[in-house]
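DM from R.C. (forwarded with permission)

"hey, sorry to bug you on a friday — could you get me a structure for this? deadline for the figure draft is monday and I only need the backbone to look sensible"
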Amino acid sequence: MAVKNAKVYENKQFVLREFSFPNGTIISNFNNLVVLPAFCDVHVHLREPGFSYKETIFSGSRAAARGGYSDVCSMPNLSPVPDTAENLQQQLDIIKRDAVINVHPYASITMGQKGEKLVDFEKLSHAFAFSDDGKGVQSEDLMRQAMINAKRLGKIIVAHCEENSLLRGGYIHDGEYAKLHNHKGICSESEWVPIERDLRLAKEIGCKYHVCHISTKESVDLIRKAKADGVDVTCETAPHYLVFNDMDLKEEGRFKMNPPIRSEADRLALVEGIKDGTIDMIATDHAPHSEEEKSKGLEKSAFGVVGIETAFPVMYTHLVKTGIITLEKLVEIMSLNPRSRFGIADSGYTVWDLDKEITVNSDDFLSLGKATPFENAKLFGECLLTVCGGKIVYEK
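My reply, with the result:
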């Protein structure tokens, strides 16, 4: 099927040209539709192996396809943790069998993500990158050695930055990952202090370094200064940190994530970081849980919200339609920049009706997780088609 005068993003701009879709595609009206390079999310939790009651690679990758993604990178807080080649292979086998898009799994930095002993980097050199996401690497010496190993292999260290000694309320353990007693105990210092440490190490060693889900104004400032100083650093933030501040919180599990939603000053600093390029990319930190785990209120629910099916409409509505950034800029931070940083090839495209107003209803999600802070939000943008590797992976 070929459409004339399709609005297509190419070479960092939109052009009107004829565009051919796969056979069988049905798009009755192409007015006001856009063809975008498929998105790439470097931070998702697909929960398999080990926690498939929360999400599976099949359900999570279908949800991603519906969100316009052809590539996602899956975090390692799994069971077994991908801390050996054998454990990583378990995940790779499921991806090969069940994933409908490209899934790139991280290997962990430390054995069992316990922060005590490094993994064998050489034996995991085929891994996409290394991260202990969900936990911060507390030992400076261990992080230094991890960066040395990663540099030798040309890999990126991807850091969840959280300093345990600065947390209020202490930790409890549930067998999957550490959780705070009090959501409000995750102070800003617990994020930016380890970022400051790691930036110093990354400059010393010359390692490629990426910071997960930044949420504070201090984090933005530190990374901005480090980039100006020549440090090889990139970072991400998530849609909920760019839209909400702590005055929007409700006593519901769908507002509980780590790091938490912070002040309006932090939100504005993040928006400015998007505008000036300090923040390189949007990642969803898509983290599904069961209904039971998210139904215990803000204090006692599990950390994590879902977002991969709503990320583009949220960002288009709140950043583009408001004139904060251009649509071209949004494509850069949701597709081009993550692919460039992590060496992920462009593998597809996605078609969106930007004039379509939608109401977020988690009952309609393809993800098994339903906890979203954007429940009932009025947004613009509906995905009509996602193609990955020449195959239709989602069609409305």
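R.C.: lifesaver. The chain has a mean pLDDT of 93.
me: no worries. The longest helix spans residues 189-205.
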